[in-house]
Amino acid sequence: MTGGNESCTAGLTSMSYLTCLTYILEEWTGVEDIGDYLSYAFYILWLLFPLVVVFVLPGVIVILFYVSILWLHIYKRKNEIKEAYSHDAWIGAREVVATLWDGHGRLWHGYELHGVENIPKGPGLVVFYHGATPVDYIYFSARLHIMTKRRCRVVADHFVFRLPG
């Protein structure tokens, strides 16, 4: 840069925004060749990105568990919209929690539900595999509730019933 308080585009040659930012950081920190340090930092970030993803996804799922539980607890305590739903006060809470989990399933995993028309109107049995956590059942029941307004009962391992909420 030609002067201390001139903008990057006011010089003799125009430069990109990142080059300008590099020059500003060099002047501000007093470190020469800060671009080398930044490229090393970006390399370390790119190298550790899979590790971050491995810890972020389960963390988001745990946070969503607790957000759902907190929402249902607050809803139970502050049940002020009972007049709107005279027959069942929990309809609004179910809608919010189902929308929250359906959005998470669609964004993180691209979860879709096909063949809902094959589920009988009366009782039926849906058998599916789940991994270490029952997240796929949560996605299934949330999407089923949004599409058909039906609830799905579960026959599962003891782990599912130990989840708070």
TrEMBL record:
Gene Ontology CC annotations of this record: membrane
Keywords, comma-separated and alphabetical: Membrane, Transmembrane, Transmembrane helix
Transmembrane segments: 43-72
Signal peptide limits: none
Record protein name field: TMM68 protein
Organism the protein comes from: Nicator chloris
Lineage of the organism: Eukaryota, Metazoa, Chordata, Craniata, Vertebrata
